[in-house]
Write a structure and sequence with these properties.
Length: 213
């Protein structure tokens, strides 16, 4: 494998992140390793490791790449509209890469791009709309936790498989012990993969937190 500066030029943080996300999406989170990624990029294992040090650093590259895809909301956009734009964009990115969520687990996402594209403008807009700092952070945390939890709840890229797995799990339950779940399976299953559940909850949180004019 190449071990020259040319390899470093080819294996930039962005190309590593894109290749890692593609690997996770195509083969699952268990397939990600420095060696597999290096093979895809046609560089040495050491070259990849030099860019990100360890797995945590590699995952940070991936999340920072995604954060760069978040929209920059135009100045003057109303608080509620701006908030919905930011968090629906985050939700769509996260649901597109469920394997990344599995690998990150509970690790905080505090990269500079996320802070610049989501956290800072959201807090700044809330302060400008009249919220106290504590209220602005509380509202942000509620919106973020809703988005993260909704994205991680089920693999939205393959709703048919998610529904089939849930149906099989419910079918294995004892109806006497789980009458609510087994007795309403047909009605419950579609809700598991319905994006409108998230969008409706997001709009409700935004409406409840909307600052007074």
């Amino acid at each position: 494998m190449p071990r020259t500066s040319a390899a470093l030029d080819r294996a930039t943080p962005e190309t590593i992140a894109v290749a890692a996300l593609r690997l996770i999406d195509e083969e699952g989170p268990g397939a990600l390793s420095f060696r597999t990624l290096a093979d895809r990029l046609d560089v040495s294992h050491a070259t990849v490791q030099r860019r990100c040090t360890d797995l945590a650093g590699l995952l940070d590259l991936c999340t920072e790449h995604l954060a760069g895809l978040l929209p920059e909301v135009p100045a003057g956009t109303g608080w509620a509209e701006a908030t919905e734009l930011r968090f629906t964009a985050l939700y769509r990115l996260l649901t597109a890469h469920p394997g990344l969520l599995i690998l990150r687990g509970g690790r905080p996402w505090m990269g500079r791009r996320l802070l610049a594209r989501l956290v800072e403008p959201q807090i700044a807009d809330s302060l400008a709309a009249g919220m106290a700092p504590e209220q602005a952070m509380t509202v942000y945390r509620r919106l973020y936790l809703l988005t993260l939890g909704s994205a991680a709840f089920v693999d939205h890229r393959d709703p048919a498989a998610a529904t089939a797995a849930s149906r099989a799990a419910l079918a294995a339950l004892d109806p006497e012990r789980f009458p609510a779940l087994t007795g309403h399976t047909a009605a419950l299953l579609p809700v598991l993969t319905d994006h409108e559940v998230y969008y409706g909850a997001l709009r409700r949180l935004i409406e409840d937190a909307r600052p007074a004019s």
